[in-house]
């Protein structure tokens, strides 16, 4: 699961439950209108944002076939990667909840976290929720957020049956694509679990995540990708 703060995710969730409910009842309209205005202004004024010169179009995705579902702008920081930060890590997460719940919380401006990608268990469908240009708050560590792409997988760390083969394969194609585009070596030093991020307080993707299988699939997908380009 993604989080930017170093605190325990469960505590954050229960601690915020009341205020989120309050917001839905009391302030949703105001917040929604503000967010829309903000977004429209950004759409027109990108060229004025210091250090950001890349063209952005609504709905653009970085991985072919991904579905764009924008995370809340509060759960990421606009950037211009890899011009401003070198991208050299892929961080693997497991959501500890359903795909629908992950979409909802990443779109929630109070969640303080989102990943770049979210993959669905039943069919391997990929949602892209933050552009790779931007720093998504998923690793719980500022420098690792800045240097990495975060991929969430629908499932539970203590339920290996939720980590489906179709999800592994879809994720492996995505990671192979990311590694090719940023010239990231396909190995366990550069493709890491959230639990391996320095000072990580999260345990995902957990003991049932099959790293041998995953790296093998990423390498196979990388080979296929290279063949397609040749
Ligand atoms: Zn995580």
From TrEMBL:
Domain of life: Bacteria
Stored InterPro entries: Amidase/PGRP_sf (IPR036505), Amidase_domain (IPR002502), NAMLAA_amidase_2 (IPR051206)
Annotated Pfam families: Amidase_2
Gene Ontology biological-process entries: cell wall organization; peptidoglycan catabolic process; peptidoglycan turnover
Keywords: Cell wall biogenesis/degradation, Hydrolase
The keyword Cell wall biogenesis/degradation appears for this protein: yes
Domain N-acetylmuramoyl-L-alanine amidase, chain residue ranges per copy: 76-206
EC number: 3.5.1.28
Enzyme class: hydrolase
PANTHER family: N-ACETYLMURAMOYL-L-ALANINE AMIDASE AMID
Protein name: N-acetylmuramoyl-L-alanine amidase
Native source species: Streptomyces boluensis
Taxonomic lineage: Bacteria, Bacillati, Actinomycetota, Actinomycetes, Kitasatosporales
């Amino acid at each position: 699961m993604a989080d930017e703060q170093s605190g325990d995710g469960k505590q954050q969730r229960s601690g915020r439950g009341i205020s989120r409910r309050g917001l839905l009842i009391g302030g949703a309209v105001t917040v929604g209108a503000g967010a829309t205005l903000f977004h429209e202004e950004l759409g027109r004024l990108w060229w004025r944002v210091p250090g950001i010169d890349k063209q952005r179009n609504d709905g653009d995705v970085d991985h072919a076939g991904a579905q764009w579902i924008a995370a809340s702008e509060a759960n990421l920081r606009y950037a211009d990667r890899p011009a401003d930060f070198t991208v050299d890590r892929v961080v693997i997460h497991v959501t500890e909840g359903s795909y629908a719940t992950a979409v909802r919380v990443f779109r929630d401006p109070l969640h303080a976290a989102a990943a770049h990608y979210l993959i669905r268990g039943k069919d391997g469908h990929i949602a892209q929720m933050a552009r790779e240009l931007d720093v998504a708050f998923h690793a719980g560590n500022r420098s690792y957020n800045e240097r990495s792409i975060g991929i969430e997988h629908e499932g539970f760390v203590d339920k290996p049956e939720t980590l489906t083969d179709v999800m592994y394969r879809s994720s492996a194609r995505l990671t192979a694509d990311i590694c090719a585009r940023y010239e990231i070596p396909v190995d366990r030093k550069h493709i890491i679990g959230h639990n391996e991020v320095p000072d990580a307080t999260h345990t995902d993707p957990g003991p049932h995540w099959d790293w041998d299988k995953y790296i093998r699939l990423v390498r196979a997908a990388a080979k296929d990708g290279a063949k397609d380009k040749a």
